[in-house]
Backbone:
């Protein structure tokens, strides 16, 4: 089964039959219901349906958890440009030394911005893998209603309804929480001028990831071979190997962490 354009059809269960009948009322918000699934919750999230998901009763809360794809660049491109501008101003006025008080320390001026930006992009690819594997795919204990609710809000709802177009990119408000944590991390590691460029690279990597994720679900057959392979790879992640294939914008970290999807590995060996 591959993602399609238009009105996609999934291996679905619109009536609820075989979908732990009686536990979920699809006419009601799912937050407040999924917690009742207990030990059955994680298996249930991987029985895909073809329908939009409503999480909350509150229209405001629901609005904050849904997003159009174009909201991602609209929100974050200005942040990237501001961070790069701020970094250039700081580094042009006073080059910064890093690592601090280390024999390997060297100075970084405005000419180092491309290198620092690239570092941020590469760092994002690792963050993407770590978050997807060890946060989004962490199986919550059936006894914890809070962790089931949190997991479903963050990622379980996407695996339950992979083609819901309003839940394919991260909404700006929750994304801002992660962005703040990443910004504080870069400020902790690097001097401020350098940190701003590294953070701009991280955010740029995130934007590429979110748009790629939307595209592999709703973009039809990509004309570029790289994205065709990613589309197939991500399809296998959703429908056959949910605990493998955690790379979305890149498979790079699936190799060293041993989570490459077997079908993909076989295809590479046969080429």
Residues:
């Amino acid at each position: 089964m591959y993602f399609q354009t238009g009105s996609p059809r999934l291996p679905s269960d619109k009536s609820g039959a075989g979908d732990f009948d009686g536990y979920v009322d699809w006419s009601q918000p799912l937050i407040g219901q999924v917690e009742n699934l207990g030990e059955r919750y994680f298996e249930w999230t991987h029985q895909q349906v073809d329908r939009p998901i409503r999480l909350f009763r509150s229209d405001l809360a629901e609005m904050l958890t849904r997003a159009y794809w174009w909201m991602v660049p609209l929100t974050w491109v200005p942040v990237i440009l501001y961070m790069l501008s701020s970094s250039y101003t700081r580094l042009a006025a006073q080059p910064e030394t890093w690592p601090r008080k280390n024999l390997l320390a060297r100075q970084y001026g405005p000419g180092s911005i491309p290198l620092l930006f690239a570092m941020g992009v590469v760092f994002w690819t690792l963050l993407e893998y770590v978050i997807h594997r060890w946060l989004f795919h962490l199986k919550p204990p059936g006894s914890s209603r809070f962790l089931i609710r949190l997991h479903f809000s963050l990622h379980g709802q996407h695996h339950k309804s992979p083609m819901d177009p309003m839940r394919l990119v991260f909404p700006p408000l929750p994304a801002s929480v992660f962005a703040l944590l990443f910004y504080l991390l870069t400020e902790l590691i690097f001097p401020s001028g350098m940190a701003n460029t590294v953070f701009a690279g991280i955010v740029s990597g995130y934007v590429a990831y979110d748009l790629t994720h939307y595209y592999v679900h709703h973009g039809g057959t990509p004309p570029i071979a790289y994205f065709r392979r990613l589309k197939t790879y991500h399809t296998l992640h959703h429908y056959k190997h949910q605990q493998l294939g955690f790379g979305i914008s890149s498979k790079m970290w699936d190799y060293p962490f041993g989570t490459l999807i077997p079908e993909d590995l076989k295809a590479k060996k046969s080429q």
